[in-house]
Amino acid sequence: MDRFRGLRNKANIALFKASRSAESTQRVIDFFDSILKEDMENEESAEEISFGPLPAHFSGANQQSTCNVLNPRKIISKGAPPTNKRLRRLRENFQRGSQRR
Fold it and tell me: Where is this region: Disordered (predicted)?
């Protein structure tokens, strides 16, 4: 997994730089295709690799869901607290302060 993370970190920077021109983009695509072809040729001798569930930032996680997604439950708020209770103290303090003078 450490090798994968190291490759991913370097690939992010390299792919960003390669995306600036069409020529370098095509070179990178050809390079990836050659690696994938090698894997298909050597597939018989290699063990199967399973990656487990895909994290959300992987492209496979963005596929459409096959089951229906239900609407979420509506959260009914209790509403704002009544303002008259809070303002009553403020008014009383204001009136007491003006009476003292």
Answer: 74-101
Residue 14: both structure tokens together:
């390299």
CA–CA separation, 44 and 18 (whole Å): 33
Q: Which amino acid is located at 18 in the chain?
A: A
Burial code of 66-101, b = ≥16 C-beta within 10 A, e = fewer?
Answer: eeeeeeeeeeeeeeeeeeeeeeeeeeeeeeeeeeee
**CA 34/CA 41 separation, integer angstroms:** 11
Total domains in the fold of the chain = 1
Domain span including residue 26: 1-44
Query: Would the pTM count as exceeding 0.70?
Result: no
